[in-house]
Amino acid sequence: MxxxxxxxxxxxxxxxxxxxxxxxxxxxTVIVNTxxxxxxxxxxxxxDLDTVCYTLAGLANPVTGWGRADETFHALExxxxxxxxxxxxxxxxxxxxxxxxxxxxxQGDRLSEITRDFCRAWGVEVRVLPMSDxxxxxxxxxxxxxxxxxxxxxxxxxxxxVRGFTFLGAENARPAPGVLEALQRAEAVIFCPSNPWVxxxxxxxxxxxxxxxxxxxxxxxxxxxxxxxxxGPAAKMYAEMGxxxxxxxxxxxxxxxLDGFVLDTVDAxxxxxxxxxxxxxxxAPTWMRSRADRKALAQAVLNFVQTFIN
Length: 310
Ligand code: GDP
Hints:
This protein is of the alpha/beta class and 310 residues long. It has a single domain, classed as CofD-like domains (Rossmann fold). It contains 13 helices and 14 strands. A 7-stranded parallel beta sheet has the order 5-2-1-9-10-13-14, sandwiched between helices. The protein has a 3-stranded antiparallel beta sheet with strand order 7-6-8. Strand 1, helix 1 and strand 2 form a beta-alpha-beta unit. The longest helix has 16 residues. The site of guanosine-5'-diphosphate has 25 residues, from helix 1 and helix 2.
C-alpha cells in the first residue's frame, strides 16, 4: 500500500518510524516540515528533517525525542564560554550533520538532494522529502511582537501568547522534487500526530500540496490527547487562538481534507462529534511510549486507511 505521511518533528517521527516498521520501504514517503529551519552559528539547521531521519535511522536520542543518542555538547560549551549564542542545543555528533549540510548548500546542492544522500549514508530506506527546497520560515505573531520560529520555540520556550502564524514565502515556494508526484501516486495520505499550526500547516501551505493531499483518501492522527499535548505547545496555541484544545479541535482544523480521524481512547466521547463533521473516527491508543507502540499505532492506522481505499 503506497503511503505518504506528512510529519513535523517529534510526534511525526514516532509515527513515521511505526509506518516504516509496518510497510516495505518502497511503499512509504515521508514529507517533512522545513518551516522550523533556520541559520544558527552560520549553519543550516533543519530540526524536523533531522528528527525524522535520526529516528528512522535508529540514531535519535530516546529521551529527548530530538538530537542524537550518545551525544556530547563540548562544542556548544565552548561557544557559550566565548560568549556566543548557546541557547539552541547542538550536540557534537549533530553538528557534523549541520556542517556537512551547510557545506553542501554552499556548493549549490538542494536540501532534497542532501537529505536523500544523508538518508542513504544512515541506512534509511524510506524516502524522506523536505516539503520544499525553498526557504519558508515560520514567523510566530505574538502579543510581544513577531518572532522567528526558533526564537519563539526554544529561546522564549513558547511562552509568548500567539496570535497567528505566517509561512514566509510559502505562496512562491515550490514543492521539493517528488512531493507532488508521491502524493498523486499515494493510495492514501496520513497526517502524523504533529503540531497542526506549525508542523503540518506549513507543509499544506506549499502550493499544490493541499489539493494533492485532499484528492487522496486522508487520515489524520490527533496530537492532542485528553486536551493536552504529549510534548510541545500545540494545546497552548489552540487556547491562545481562542479554541479549546481537543482532538475534535484538530479534526475541525483539517476537516475539509479528512476522510478519517484517529483519536485516543481517552477522548472516545468526542467520536460522535467528529462523525457529525462527516469524518469517520477511529478510537485507538495513540500515545507511543515505545517502539512497539509506534508499530501498533501504525498498523491500526493502516488497517483504518485500507477501509477508505476502494
Ligand atoms: P515538533 O516539530 O518537534 O514539535 O514535532 P511535531 O509537531 O511532529 O510533534 C509535536 C506534537 O506531537 C505534539 O503536539 C505532541 O502532542 C505530539 N505527540 C508527541 N508524541 C506523541 C504520541 O506518542 N502520540 C500522539 N498522539 N501525539 C504525540
